[in-house]
Structure formats: structure tokens, C-alpha cells
Amino acid sequence: MTDVWHATTGVRTRVPGTALYAALAWRGHFLLLMGDADEAQGRMHLQLVDSELRFLDSASLTTPGACQPPGPLVLSHPNHIVFCFPAGGTVWRISLFPAFRLRLPRLSEPADVQRHFSWRRHFGVARID
Length: 129
Hints:
There is one protein chain. The chain is an all-beta fold. The chain has one domain. It contains no helices and 11 strands. Strand 4 and strand 5 form a beta hairpin. The protein is globular, with a radius of gyration of 14 Å. About 20% of the residues are buried.
């Protein structure tokens, strides 16, 4: 767990991960990409928080190469972020939603994406093949 704080408001929160790979501002929210550098296989945690750093949604991506920061983050659409890890392989897309969407637990995303049980999400993670 790592402490993250908002430089302007001073609000703090704890998020999973040991290293901040990226923090992206989007519609008054922040998407935090955090890594676990101590895991052999690699895991990247995705956290969407509001301006007061309250959690809106989270997911973890467990895949080879995720122990390193992702390569360049490409904004392919105003609501899409595309990236891959330096080791190569799969290209990933994060789709941010203006309002929450219903989801089918364990069926809405690839097996590499883990989430806590929930019927709604504010972002989706998909492979681009």
C-alpha cells in the first residue's frame, strides 16, 4: 500500500501498489496506475478516484511484464488509453465511462483483469489483438 495525496487540497488516501506509474486527470477524476515492483509475475493496479480521492472503481491487471512501468500511454480517443508493457506482447485499452455501467462479474473482461465483486464499473479493460 502507498499513500497518495492531492497537492492542492492535501487530501490523502492509501492505494494498492508500491510505485506510481501514471496519474491521469479525466473529467474531474484521476486514474492512478500503480505497480507492484516486488512481484515476480507483475501486477498493475488501476484506481479511479474522484477529486477528493474517494474510490470510484478499481481493477488489477496480472500479466507478464507488468512488474515494469507500461510503455507510452496513448490517448486513442478522449475516453480511451492504450498501452503495452516493455516486454512486448498484448496491447491493452482502458475505456473510461462518463457514468457507471453495469457489468457481469467475471465475464465482462479478460481473465488477466481482477476486480472485487460488483455489478457496476466506471472503466473497462480490454485486450487489443
